[in-house]
User: Fold Lipoprotein from Hymenobacter lucidus.
Amino acid sequence: MTRLRLPFAATALLGTTLLLSGCDTTPRERQEIVREEARKLDTLADRTADKLRVAGRRAARYDSVSRARNRQPLDNATTATFTKQLLGTYADIETLTPTTIEPAYVQLLRQTRAQRKQWSQRDWDYATSIYKRLNERLKAIRLDVKGRDEIHIRALQAEFTTHETSRDVKDLGQAVKD
Assistant:
C-alpha cells in the first residue's frame, strides 16, 4: 500500500473531517471518507501540477522569444529616431557635458513615463540601448559631475530600471496566462 504524504493543511482537513463524522460513522465508513478526501487532494495536486507545467512551458517560450529578439541587431535609423524622440536636444550623447548629462536623464525619464505603456518589447530594446549609451557617457565624465546631479541621476536610473523590469514582469505574466 502506498502512503500519501500530505501537507499540514490537508492533514488538518482530514482530521477535522474524521472528528465531525467520527461519532456517527463506523470505522469502515471513516476509512472510506479518508480515501475520498485523499482522492480529492490527489486530483487537486494533479491539476496544479498540470497548470505549473503549462506555465513553465509558456515561460520558457517567452524567454526563447525574448532571446531571439535580443539577438537581432537594432536598426541604426530607428535608433537615431528613438534617440531624438527620447532625448530631444540632448540626442547627441557623445557631446554631453557634466552640466548637460543630468538634464538628458531627466528628458529620457520624462519621455519614458509618457510613452512606456504603449511601447512594445522592441521599443524597450531601443530605449534601453539609449539608456546604456547615456550610462557610458556618464562613466566618461562622472568625475566632473556635481554630487547632487549624480545623486539625482542615480534616482532616475533606478526609476528607468524599475519601469523596464515592470514591463518584463507584466509581459511574462501575460505570456504565462495565455
